[in-house]
Design a protein that fits this description.
This protein is of the alpha+beta class and 156 residues long. Helices cover 17% and strands 35% of the residues. A hairpin with a 6-residue loop joins β2 and β3.
Amino acid sequence: GERSGLIQKVPTPITPIRIDKESRHITLAYFDKKSTVDYIGAVQGIPVCFDAKELHADTFPLQNIHEHQMDFMKAFEGQKGVAFFLLYFTRRDIYYYLTSGGGDFWDRAKAGGRKSFRVEELDPTYFFRGQGGFFIPYLEMLQKDLDAEPTDDRIM
């Protein structure tokens, strides 16, 4: 059936450096590196968090994903949540649902292998197209991700 969800953009934490005394506006600040994910919420009772990445080439440098992000996502999944990356390949105008496991690309990089992955290495069944304007139908991929897992330990 149709899935619906409640997803919220997580504000990027900033550290104010200079504040205008009269207007009380922040005039200088820097972004905190330790932010975790872009979006968080729930889809029909299942906690969901994901990060959105835009790719202008057919390769994805893994340095775009930080260790603390991966740690957060693992912990999130440990709480029966689903964590993933939503990749948008701008040249191909196609989206990819990358499970937080990341197709073992991280393990490969950690073991001294290539520090990136190519579009050809991705599972073709997790590519999808946007549907007019801003609507990105990633919930179908989320369902596919859920169906691929053993469900006995997941509360439905």
